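Batch job 17 of 40 flagged for manual review because the log was empty.
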Amino acid sequence: MSLLAAMAAVIASYAAAQTSTAVSASARSDATHIKTHLVTRSIRVAAPGTYAVIVSLSPTKTSEKADVYAGSENEVGIGLNSSQGDKIEFMVAVKKRTMHVLVVSHGPKVSFSVASALQTPQLTTPPVVTSTGSTSPTAPVTGPYNSLVWSDEFNGPAGSLPNPANWGFDSGGGCGPGTLSTNTPTPNAADAELDGQGHLAIISSGPFPYSAAQLDTDGMFSFTYGRIEARIDVAPGQGICSAFWLLADDGEQVGWPNGGEIDVMEAIGDLPSQTNGFLHGPVGPVNPNSNYQQWNAAVNSVTPLAGSYHTYGMIWKPNSLTWTLDGVPFATATPTTLYPTSTWVFNGHPFHILLDEAIGGWPGNPNSATVFPAVMGVDWVRVYQ
């Protein structure tokens, strides 16, 4: 349904409800007591093209449903309550210089914000890295972070291993307590290989015993502050956990998670349209989360994230971490957003990069419908300072 058609339908429904108020109270249905609110915003864009649009809906005083229309796309029946809003990503084709967003609430008016980013064509040749090294210098405090300091474009022959100068194979990791898959520290193309078309395939095999791979840049590349992005096609299926994350270099010395863990993207296979961001660190004695989780945020996409490539990113500054999806910021964590007894450990020390796919853990176990091998595709990983 187009935005104009949606507006017309809702306005007609609202007019009908208003007309029915002339009927006696005993003859009216409960539906006529519900006031419908429409809020429309016109978003000016720089140029026509395809835009990733994230509409962030605020929590509401009472439980209610809302419908969101962005250009020709829509998501209806979104549940909101006093403790939970929602964030929805749309891919919108904008033909002119203006994009319209409509939010319809069937109760109190819903507050919302809109952020967007033009989706540029993917590069056919790798970008030029301006500097490189085992550990990059600490980035400026405020940015902007636009100078590429490290990348892997995963170019190479089909069936070859990822660049050993960039990535090692790690036997640790997983997706929380109950992880069923085993990562081996020995490089194995059966678990992670290039496809010959500029992609890395991280492959989980089953049925039980499950094998998987975790790749990391520990000892080869770390950074402090900047912008990191990866273009990934996450794997669908019950019990599959795809992840792109950062771990403190001193984590082994101080013990996990005292150095800090930043999950840029964690996707659960039976929720193929959702991506999550998490922080793990010291939580104090009264934090209700047993997995040292300090903070989390999620975005739901109108179209599944599994089955297509999307760009997952994070902007890291002192006392601030901002998550992005397809170039659109959707959540920011600061020391004040953590659980009150948590400790912010994300300033001033280097973190390295990890890519992995795991079976089981907090997403639950695979079921009979889970397809193996399950493949997480990675087009590229890039760090800017």
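Reviewer: the log was empty due to a logging misconfiguration, but the result itself is present. Residues 10-33 have pLDDT under 50 and may be disordered. Unflagging and moving on to job 18.
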